[in-house]
Design goal:
It is built from seven helices and nine strands. It is of the alpha/beta class and 197 residues long. A five-stranded parallel beta sheet has the order 2-7-1-8-9, with helices on both faces. Helix 1 packs across helix 7. The protein is globular. The two termini are 29 Å apart.
Length: 197
């Protein structure tokens, strides 16, 4: 294959999609928005996190999460294989670094759906990334969504609500805020932010 005048890079650097990080309080609807967007636009690559949490009903290893043991997570962290990691509600979550960097290098739009701690770590290590905050329409609506899941005991819900107050206060740290009043509208706005238009 002949070399192009601008080198061997498949995509000119200024045309490369940036890493987009979606964060927000637990229960705000991040997963729902991302699933809706990717149904129509599967070319947006969603990083699959590793977690020490046990699978919920219907969750598949390698699709929803990489379910790992505490020992495996220790190794990933020690070896610097995670772009970010955080502990939440007694479990650890992390984003495998290599897969994200490979997709970005290939010019593919990459989306991370992570918590506040993780978003801050990504901002520190990849300042060019775009941080998007997904906010609930109201606090009451967020409480309703969290308590309505029915998948977690009351003490976990209490921890999530306490964490949500902290997360909501961090909104000014983000580049953009989207309010989740309509999954379709937010998915469309998020899609535009990933440079897939």
């Amino acid at each position: 294959m002949a070399a192009t005048p601008w080198g061997t890079s498949p995509v000119p650097p200024d045309a490369r999609p940036r890493l987009t990080v979606l964060s927000g309080p637990s229960g705000v609807g991040k997963s729902t928005v991302v699933a809706h967007m990717r149904k129509a636009h599967p070319e947006v690559w969603l990083s699959v996190s590793a977690t020490t949490r046990k699978p919920r009903p219907g969750e598949q290893h390698g699709v929803h999460y990489f379910f790992v043991s505490d020992e495996e997570m220790d190794k990933l962290i020690a070896n610097g294989e995670l772009l970010e990691w955080a502990e939440f509600a007694g479990n650890r979550y992390g984003t495998p670094r290599t897969a994200v960097l490979e997709r970005l290098e290939a010019g593919e739009p990459v989306l991370l759906e992570i918590d506040l701690q993780g978003a801050r770590q990504v901002r520190a290590s990849m300042p060019e990334s775009r941080l998007v905050f997904l906010a609930p329409p109201s606090w009451d609506e967020l409480v309703r969504r969290l308590t309505g899941r029915g998948t977690e005991p009351p003490e976990v819900i209490e921890r999530r609500l306490a964490a949500a107050k902290v997360e909501l206060a961090a909104e000014p740290e983000f580049d953009q805020t989207l309010v989740n009043t309509s999954v379709e509208d937010v998915a469309r706005e998020l899609l535009a932010l990933t440079n897939v238009v």
